[in-house]
Amino acid sequence: MPLSLRHFFLLFVTIFGLSSGSDLFSNSFLVRFRRDVDGDEAHSVASRTGFVNMGPVLGSKREYHFVNHAVPAARTKRSIPHVRKLKVDPLVHTAIQQPGFIRVKRGYKPLKVENLVRNIQPHSDPTDPYFPFQWYLKNTGQNGGKAKLDLNVEAAWAQGVTGKNITTAIMDDGVDYMHPDLKYNYNAKASYDFSSNDPFPYPRYTDDWFNSHGTRCAGEVAAARDNGICGVGVAYDSKIAGIRMLDQPYMTDLIEANSMGHEPGLIDIYSASWGPTDDGKTVDGPRNATMRAIVRGVNEGRNGLGNIYVWASGDGGEDDDCNCDGYAASMWTISINSAINDGQNAHYDESCSSTLASTFSNGAKDPNTGVATTDLYGKCTTTHSGTSAAAPEAAGVFALALEANNNLTWRDVQHLTVLTSKRNSLFDAKGRFHWTMNGVGLEFNHLFGFGVLDAGAMVALAKQWKTVPPRFHCEAGSVTQVQKIPSAKKLVMQITTTACQGQSTEVRYLEHVQAVLTVNASRRGDLELFLTSPMGTRSMILSRRQNDDDTRDGFTKWPFMTTHTWGEYPQGTWVLEASFNSQMPQTGFVKEWTLMLHGTKEPPYTELAVLDPHSKLAIVKKAHENRMKM
């Protein structure tokens, strides 16, 4: 069910001042009118106040995006005179100058001119010359990889599913829509350039090809098959849309919101290979308008079925935690981590309890053996990598699932991901995180989520899928008494809950769980947090981040999320542990903890036939049946 305004504001307060660095202000302004206005009236107000009207925000008739080109694109002080000029207009209710903030592409290393591989002879079916290098599609052990450790896409293709009539939007630095491997799968109607405000999201030229990021991601999803050019996309008959929104000095809330809310009826999947800075000290997430766009997308997009938002989990490595990224850790996005071709995690992979699944990035023995895909100006590359490469692979798999069953909701896609992802040969190279089974028999890993996506299994299950029951949001309890975190011991807090039993928001079968916390610490980076469910599943919801020296901001109503308790029963006692992982004495306080449970009242898989008695579906369905007998 749609999220209420009360829960919206509890879970996602507007986040300002959490990034490192001084505040910056852009030349963009959010203008709210006192009544509904049409485009002509908005243009008239903009003209007489010295602004340019860039159009409505998320289709609103009261909120518009104004730009003043006399104001620098980035400045350290608010432009009070320009705000006043807008506010004195009788039609204007409020005017807010938009802060500027950093959003970075998620790639293994700065992009440079690649060493292109030429004159490759067609080798196999598909006949595309780079297909032999696409080990993530078909791993035969090439380049030191482990045979059969791949996305199992051939099993999906063999079912006649190739992504037809599905559109994935690449929200990035643009897409080379004239590339011969992309142009016939390009959806111009669903595309837009929010960096230049025109319908042509072509990448801006730079000598070092820095703006090749979006084109590479697009090829992973929808590069054409058997045309003698580059490789093949995971969903090679699907469409891609280009949404150019990263290529300006600083991001604003309005650009992000308009990008994520662009054409939600034409776009099925939004793929994002970017986020807050992966420096291990930033805590940041969506601002107000962007969060509204995402919530509207999952509630109203795809004619009410909900848009699918796919997010790269981050490239900060073991020094960062993707639960500090409010995009990747959102329950409305699907956070994707990566593995390399022999099953190890990549050294740049972040870990967190909100990661749902994994795909692939680069090779083990040769780091230059990355993801083979399209590149700028009709070229091809074999060196795309990072979780930037992982997210579009997932988007391609989801495009296959949506073709197999176009009635899937955004939640159905998450359930399918949990039930069909495989452990396969994935392992933590440093032995920190082991595969663990939750209370209903689902295996998960803190690095890889529920495993690597299996396109063949997801398509097969999608074909027989029955939409899961309505979703409810239960505020299961709060602790508002301030409690000190000891320097050398754990602070242990408990909430015992009936999970809203007997109320309209009762939850009996879990999907996402959030611990909404207000915490401060003498050194935020040394803080560790664990959440244990009534069925005994222990999730690390915050790990140590050695680069985070914050002493002031801490976390304010921050929603730490875990997927590890998926399918479990929430009634009982939940335990929160807070402690410091530090050689130096530290102090801190948990000021508030609210437990939010999200899931269904009814069991989700009762109508599904089980073909394999050893499958995840069979195991969870049996656990749920036993629960119903209690």
UniProtKB/TrEMBL annotation:
Compartment(s) where it occurs, according to its Swiss-Prot or TrEMBL record: Secreted
One cellular component term from this protein's GO annotations in UniProt: extracellular space
Domain spans labelled P/Homo B: 467-603
Keyword Signal belongs to the record: yes
Active site (UniProt): D172 (charge relay system), H213 (charge relay system), S388 (charge relay system)
Pfam families: P_proprotein, Peptidase_S8, S8_pro-domain
Signal peptide range: 1-21
Gene Ontology biological-process entries: larval behavior; peptide hormone processing
Key words, A-Z: Cleavage on pair of basic residues, Disulfide bond, Glycoprotein, Hydrolase, Protease, Secreted, Serine protease, Signal, Zymogen
Domain of life assignment: Eukaryota
Entry EC no(s): 3.4.21.94
UniProt catalytic activity: Release of protein hormones and neuropeptides from their precursors, generally by hydrolysis of -Lys-Arg-|- bonds
Family: Belongs to the peptidase S8 family. Furin subfamily.
PANTHER family per UniProt: NEUROENDOCRINE CONVERTASE 2, PROPROTEIN CONVERTASE SUBTILISIN/KEXIN-RELATED
Name the record gives this protein: Neuroendocrine convertase 2
Natural source organism: Tribolium castaneum (Red flour beetle)
